[in-house]
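Q: What changes when adenosine-5'-diphosphate is included in the input?
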Amino acid sequence: MDREGREAVMPNSARAEPEPIGLIAAMHWQHWLILAGALAATFLAWRFSAQQEEEKARVRFERRTGDIIHLVRERMRRYEDALQAGAAFIDTMGGQVDLPTWRRYATSIGIIRKYPGINGLGVIHFVPADSLESYLGEQRVFRPDFDIHPTRKADAYWPISYIVPVAGNREAVGLDIAHERNRLEAAQRARDTGTAQSTGPIVLAQDKQGAPGFLFFFPFYDPQREPQTVDERRAALRGLIYAPFAVRKLMEGALARERRLVSFSIRDGDELIYDENLEEARDYDANPLFVTREPLEFYGRQWHFEFRASQSFRRESVSLQPKIILIGGIVIDALLFALLAQVSRSSRRASRQAARLQRAQADLSRANDELSQFNYRTSHDLIAPLKTIRGFADLALRDLARGGAASTADLLRRIDQQAARLDQIVRDLLNLCQVDHLQEAAEPVDLDALLRGVDESLRDLKQERGAAFRWSVTLRQPLFAQTARVRQILENLVSNGLKYADDAKPERWVEVRAIEGARGGARIEVEDNGIGIPEDARGRIFDMFFRVGNSPQFGSGLGTYLVKKHVDAMGGSIDYVSTPRGTVFFVDLPRQTKARSAS
Ligand code: ADP
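A: The predicted holo structure follows.
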């Protein structure tokens, strides 16, 4: 019993298969917090890196657009220098140059070679109407067929007198730029300010393709005067140095497009004068990383640049760093998740195991307590009747020696009584030992036959207690259970009903009713009209060796304990109701399909 008792406790708790623990279910909220933090950190690192990359690209883009504007300005400043040098040359020549001198001058400064983008360097004379004849006379010295065109009557004329090289500019020679407002306005602005000025976009007389171009003017005055005011300048004006240039050529000369990574267009007012932002262009990006607009003060005109980043720019700007950070971060977070989940699962398992071990330990120590109590009680209960028997036997022997027959018979009866008690205790102990080891299969139990057997076995007790025993079985189908267990349950409960019958009542009886229980099971009610169980015994009545204090009848205190063990072994339940009028025990047994193991 001792060894087996321990085994019955230990295996259930410690050897039980661990329940599977879901990875996610195992995690604590702190773990989720750590994971959320790690994910947030990954996201922030990715955002930060992406922003840094974008910022770097923006700076690069701005540097590139700045470079372009700077190059265009530089180029124009060089043109301006060329014009200013021309004006200074005329000044040093005393305000007059003839065609050959100008040609020598312009050729000597290498106009086409050194200033790519401009089509030539020329001189426009300011000719009031009354000086027209003498002007034409001077010009016709070298060019007899020189004339001003278009022909018109005006107060003053602004004819293009010279242009070098003449090739490609021939149509410009003799052109009176005052015939058209755009040219005249720029010329007048140059005159009035004494600075280089540009016309708005025009179709150059030299340009057959009609691409937008400009005339760039710089004034020269009477070398005898130093005009300071607008009026003085107007009075002193002799003419303008001018250079025609095509915007396309200016840009081509100024900027190598392949290396720029940025394309742009230019507007003068509403007019588009230059456009690289063409969808059909090789490097065109329909959805550019950056687009900016920049105004540029351009010699009296307002130019607007629109810059677009190209596909090459996008390729150069795309960095893998943010993606690597993001993917790397997510991978690390996933590993962290796996680690935390694993750790949590292990720790949950460990704590479950610890709880199980604790329960097992508690079970074990309870079993130990029960065992010592059991040892003590059994030794005591077995020894007590034995002592009494020996005492009575001694007395009987002495009685016999004295020849007293009547008292000897009484002593022998008492010895028999004690032996019967001993027999009862040993039987109960035997039953107790068996209770955990009954492996008998469930079967249809013939309750009626069983109760008849119980009635038979308790005949003496019935007689002794003067109590009747009756029963009724009203089950639709036979109880399906382990017969030996059902028999011990009935024997114990019925014998208790008989034992604790109330002597004060004229009729004493015990009744067993087997009726339909829940879910195909059976309910067995064992009722008596005996002395009843005091209320303060509730909760202990099924404990091992429990007996009500002044129980009038002999007993081991194992009966109800045994009953409970059998009921539990069959998966049933037991309860009772008791008053001084009597007691009813209710045993509910489920319908069994197979033998239950000991525990
Ligand atoms: P015992 O061997 O003393 O009968 P049991 O375990 O069978 O031990 O019962 C425990 C105690 O419960 C008994 O001592 C008795 O006082 C009380 N008891 C059990 N059944 C009845 C009953 N039908 N009527 C009154 N008292 C009962």
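Observations recorded in class: The chain has a mean pLDDT of 87.
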